[in-house]
Amino acid sequence: MNGAQALVVVPQSNGSPKAYTSNIANSNTQLTESNISYPHSKLNATHVNGDVTIYASLNLPIGTTSLVHLWQDGPMSGNSPQMHDLNSANQQSKESLDLTSGVTQQGSGGGSLSRRRNTHGILNAVSWGVLMPLGAVIARYLKVFKSADPAWFYLHVTCQTAAYIVGVAGWGTGLKLGSDSAGITYSTHRALGITLFCLGTLQVFALLLRPNKDHKTRIYWNFYHWGIGYATIIISIINIFKGFDALEVSTGDRYNNWKHAYTGIIAALGGIAVLLEAYTWIIVIKRKKSEDKFSQGMNGGTNGVNGYGSRPQQV
């Protein structure tokens, strides 16, 4: 409601409500008494059987043909109004009023905000929440298969790079949503989003500084890359669920199906990772045994050449 020109009614102990105006842009959404942009007169209110009615005459600028009408109610702390709820009903408590025809349109402007919210959620869920974990699965398990080298590396880089690019787009839409929703702040979700952007950027720079396999610093780079990568994946999954919680607060239960679908995707990826973990360990153990037998065979052949355990030569 930042920027709204508000007509405010506050209940009084004597039963007669107090009506006043508040320019929310100037009062930082605290509904303190202040002048509004429109000249007005005859401002008063009634409070009967729990229903509040506000009366006022407003002088609008010449040529005004429409306006956006908003309404809210909220709790009181003493004589001071407090922040209203952010559920679906509160978010949609607005309409566009055509002053020439008298026609109203419910929820004007909400469609654009809803589309941007959906875009933000989809971009981040696909990038940080699906592509990033998928890239980690590719790197960890495909490289066990010798026939997949170096294809697994290029798949991993492609997956993570795409995740970062799409994730930055989702992060940008989140910043725009935040700036367009003054007074509505999801501090944890925002802080985790900024952290993800920083960690993802570090991973991009790490790729540019990747040393050769035989370089002495490669082991330290590996620890850094693994640590930052897995931290990014864990935080991203947590933050996506934080985003779903924020949607439930602001829009009700409309996005529960999305939350269930993403939960299913993450569960499926986790199950695949567990199966591949067991399968790759079997392959590694078998390969190790095969290499040990081959090594023992080579040692036996060498000893035979040196005269140990070999048949005597006839002269």
On the 0 to 100 scale, the average pLDDT is: 80
Number of domains: 2
Strand order of the largest sheet: 5-8-9
How would you characterize the largest beta sheet? 3 strands, antiparallel
Q: How far is the first residue's CA from the last residue's CA?
A: 107 Å
Q: State the low-pLDDT regions, or none.
A: 304-315
Total helical segments: 7
Under the CATH scheme, which architecture of the largest domain would be assigned? Up-down Bundle
Rounded radius of gyration (Å)? 32 Å
CATH-defined topology of the largest domain? Four Helix Bundle (Hemerythrin (Met), subunit A)
Please sum up the structure shown.
Residues 78-94 have a biased composition (Polar residues). With 315 residues, the chain is α+β, with helices and mostly antiparallel strands. The protein has helices at 24-27, 88-91, 110-141, 151-180, 187-208, 218-251, 256-305; strands spanning 5-10, 18-23, 40-48, 51-58, 66-70, 76-77, 80-81, 94-98, 104-106.
